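Moderator note: this is an archived Q&A kept for reference. The question asked for a predicted structure of one protein chain; the sequence and the answer are reproduced below.
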Amino acid sequence: DWCVGQLLQALDSLKLTSNTLVIFSSDNGPVVDDGYKDKSVEELGRHKPAGPLRGGKYSIFEAGTRVPLLVSWPGKIAPGISNALLSQVDLMASLAVPAGATLPAGTAEDTQDHWSVLAGKNKKGRKALIIHAQTYALVQPGWKYIEPAKGNTLFKEVNIESGLLDKPQLYRISTDIAEQNNLAVQYPKRVKRMQQQLKKIKSSN
């Protein structure tokens, strides 16, 4: 936080704030003890780095892959909050728009242009997103399907749930962001549709 503050203060002092697009994000969810002897566990107290999310870094659960994405461009982007589904992969195609750039054919084939979402002018993002952490998951607006996989349910070294289960998992993340209620049995048709879509996307390379 301190480093970001210093950067923003530098932009202010140079009168570059209104001409600068700032994007703040993270490469993965939190992990408290990743092998560093920095007393993170001892000094954690009641702080919950992942908030209400389940899992953490390395996990297929939301705390492993859902990360902060803050976009700031005073005078160009109005303050607001969006629940649109996006991936950092989409930054390439999206930022090409305000830059007036055209991506060469065959470049970054997974990226999608969602500049209007980043700019706060549209709240519809991706229709689907694949995530991977030991296994695959398909996320759609409001829903998440996790492919069955064998493995340890807990990464003991970092004390984080892996999310691995040898049967399908389906969560209604619009109302169950903590992924506590596996609805796969209650919604077999949705599970089948998402399984087929995931398989189709994977087989299409």
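Archived answer notes: The radius of gyration is 19 Å.
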